[in-house]
Structure formats: C-alpha cells, structure tokens
Design a protein that fits this description.
alpha/beta; 283 residues; Elongation Factor Tu (Ef-tu), domain 3; 31% strand; 7-stranded mixed β-sheet
C-alpha cells in the first residue's frame, strides 16, 4: 500500500519532519510505539518513532535525522510523493498514568520521541518537566511544541548557544534537586543517544527514581526476526523491538548496547558512500 506524503519540512540542517497518510497506524497508535517504513521496492526497512498523529486526517508524523542512506533518500522526497510501506504500530506502548512530577529527557531526535509522551503524561494529570538538548541551537527541534505541552521546558546545548551550556543530564540533576523538598520527581523518561540515556540512569540511580529508557536506536528489522536488537536487561536477553522498546534504565546493560551499535557502523558508512556516489552520477 502506498502512503502519500502530505507534508515534509526541513527542521534544521539534518533533521526533517514528514507527515504521511497511514490510516491503520493513526487509528491505533499509542505513545512509545514505532513504525517500519520502506521507501520503494529496492529500499531497506527502517524503524522510526511516531512523533504525532492526526486521527481525523489519518496521518502520522515522523521526525528523523538524515544521516544514513535511507534517511538521506527520504529527505529528498516531496509532498505528493509516496512511501511504499508503513508497518505498525509496533512495540509496546508507554505506561501512561498519574505518577506525580515527571521529567522527560530528550536529546537530538529523541526529542521527537518524548513529545507524544509529554503530552500524554500531562493529559493524565502529571506535572511534566521536559528537558531537551542538542549540539547547538540550530539543531534543537520541537521547542515551541514542547513548551505548549509541558508544565516546564528546560533546554541544554553542548556549545551553550541556547539554554544551559552543557548536557541535559546536568539539567536533570538540578531539576531533581529542585523538586527534592516538594514531593520529588516520581519518574524519569529518557530517549536519545545511548551515552546520554546511560548518564541519565546514573543521575537518577542514587535517588532511586524509577527511570525508563527507550532503546529504539538499535532496532533494525523491528519485528523480532533478525535478532539484531538483542539487549541485556538485568542480565536477561531481550529483543528491543518486541519486548520493548522501553525498559528500566537501571537494569539496561548500556555498554553491551553500545558495542552492538558499533557492529553496523562500517556497513552504514559504506551504504552512505554508495548512495552519494549514485546521486552524483545521476546529476
């Protein structure tokens, strides 16, 4: 089934938003879930987290970084073009209920992943603090949308061009300390680069704050068939795509996850080089 692109927008240098018709996903999507898309018959299947849905229009919004072969190709499409396949929603939904004071920490394109969680948690009656970060101000996404959804939105950039000069985990630590004498942070959800999520888990561990991390970045097939997204949770092997993608961050073996991600770097680099070569030849 072809899925027409109704909107595509360049959010920053590498980050893009794409909205496609996908009635079967829009009707059933819950925060935390993802889809698998394939651009065309010769394309690879890639997992992308759903940032937003429009049930009335039967569309879903995906936000991605154009750094791999398929995401680069996806960024060149236009409104009116089609995506061949969109399978989903896949994965287990996030636990949404009233926890109290919740901090949602997103880094890079992980900001798009926490956005539907922030909205759902706020709707469930939580006081949500959104902590978002990027390498610099130009790569920061969904700031306006996050401020509209969360009770408080805090920003960090690596170069200090906006908000806190440093990491989101430093802002998380300050936030925990700020709320310590007023009920405390009841739950932390973190989505973004693996080192960032590992650091967030170490920040919350001494405080014994339940912390959830999404390991969606290591998925390949997305349906449990390839086994590439194996991760050890409290010493037990799990498949991120079907057992997750969210897990107790204090039980995740992040070092193993990092080493697993290294397995694909050489092939990913070669795929990008091949794509750039083919693109130049077409010009």
């Amino acid at each position: 089934m072809n899925h027409i692109i109704v909107r595509i927008k360049n959010l920053s240098r590498e980050n893009f938003l794409i909205e496609i018709k996908a009635p079967h996903v829009a009707e059933r999507f819950q925060p935390g879930q993802f889809v698998i898309i394939r651009i065309n018959e010769t394309g690879e299947r890639i997992p992308l987290t759903v940032a937003d849905v429009n049930r009335a229009a039967k569309t879903i919004t995906l936000i991605f970084q154009a750094v791999g072969r398929t995401t680069m190709e996806l960024s060149t499409l236009n409104e009116g073009d089609f995506v061949l396949n969109c399978v989903g929603p896949l994965g287990n939904p996030s636990e949404i209920k009233k926890f109290g004071q919740v901090a949602c920490v997103g880094g890079g394109t992980g900001i798009a992943c926490i956005y539907p969680l922030v909205r759902a948690l706020a709707k469930a009656g939580n006081e949500v603090t959104a902590i978002i970060g990027a390498r610099n101000e130009s790569m920061l996404i969904l700031e306006k949308e996050m401020k509209a959804a969360a009770a408080k939105t805090l920003i960090a950039t690596d170069d200090g061009s906006k908000g806190h000069h440093g990491f989101v985990t430093e802002v998380l630590h300050k936030t925990i300390e700020t709320y310590k004498n007023s009920g405390g942070i009841s739950r932390v959800i973190t989505i973004g680069p693996i080192p960032m999520m590992k650091a967030a888990a170490e920040v919350t561990r001494p405080y014994k704050i339940p912390t959830i991390a999404s390991l969606n970045t290591i998925m390949v097939d997305g349906t449990g068939m390839c086994g590439s997204c194996r991760a050890y949770i409290d010493g037990v092997m799990k498949l991120v795509c079907i057992d997750g993608p969210e897990f107790d961050a204090h039980k995740v073996d992040f070092d193993d996850v990092l080493s697993r991600m290294e397995m694909f770097k050489a092939k990913e680099k070669q795929a990008v080089e091949n794509y750039k070569k083919i693109s130049l030849e077409k010009e």
